[in-house]
Model the fold of this input.
Amino acid sequence: MLRGLHRVRHYIISTLRVFFVLMVALFLPKLCFWHFKQAQEQPAQTHASNFKLGLENLPDTLFKSVDKAQKKVKPAIALITNQTGTDQEGNRNVDILAKKGMHITKILIPEGSDFGRATFQGSERRLDIPIITLHTKDNQPLFNKAILKDTNILMFDMQDSGVRHYGYVSMLLQAMQAARTYQKKFVVLDRPNLLGWCMEGASSDGLSHAGDSSIEQSIVPTRHGMTIGELATYFNKYVLGNPVDLHVVPMENYDRQTEARKPLMCGLSRNINNIDSCYGYSFLGLLGEVAPFEIGIGTDKAFQCLLLPEHLKFPKQKWHELRLLLNNHGIESKLYRHFSDRKKEYCAGLRLYIHDINQFSSFKTLLTVLNFFKQSGVKLTFSNQFDSALGTDKVRSLLQGSVKPEALALEINGDLQSFFKKAFSCFLYKPFPKMMHV
Done:
């Protein structure tokens, strides 16, 4: 009897030993892997939490007082900004600069900006600063001697979309020209590129309207992959001829890939007020220059949908075919319909969502969409701004059959490679932009 009990106990103990050995063998590697993964992720989380905009990375002694007649006089700053000029907590740049003792004498804002005098009525201080709207008319420069009178420094702090034709690239260059002409120091408070690290599309001298023949040497890809500070560095080195006294206040712990996945701190405009609209703008902004497309301008789905007027009776089956094509480009879509106040009728088509902007090609998607509707029998009418916004007339020629796809790809890729080689010395952050060829 005792011998039988001893055998049973021995059997149970042996079984438990085998069980514990199996548990250790199965779960110890997973436990080690989990700790290893946590150790890898921890620096990345710390890195992200330590991210600072240029505005937040300002040294306390950036500008020294100027000695005039043995009196210390603070440099007078003209701040070029709009509603995007805030820190990550939403505090206005004018308040932050004032707290650092900087003397802002005037605020210069883009024409058509959501920003206005009322924006600063809620600010903590500096409510008496004149706000001047920069007007574009009769091919006159945005900045002139009268606007820059009584200033020593031009400071640029606006969030760019990441696409050349958005307008701030041109404004940046014109501001730098003015600073050079009137011998002002030029300061850029750097901000992220919202479209990630990809550099792609046609290059253009489409900034030549700014009034200086040297601008014709400026060749910037449609989606440039650079920050506003890097673009300023590029313009200063390759475009201006005589460089301006440039100072870029860099961001801290900036990663092009990581920051591209974050939401907008503030809407760029009435139609780009969230990150999905910004991503969509990278190619729908160009499709908006082609009739009869409707892209949701003036609605809460601006640059997030691709529609046609219902009177065209575009088959639903064709929209399903386009959905499959777009899915191959990293775009999720679903059927969508709304009333267009601009077209005064209902429009139907697709609501779009881009999964990962760092893996998404704006230029290839644009070509795919245009070619799909051409082959589907939709008559496409291009605005006068389409070629200049895109940076080439070769896309229109491709659709008309006068240019072969190989010739277009050769030109686009060649220009992109040339730009990248020149701009390489102007990159301020890693990882560097990634070229995305046609």
Summary: Confidence is low (pLDDT under 50) at residues 28-47, 120-126, 206-217. Residues 2-49 form the longest helix (48 residues).
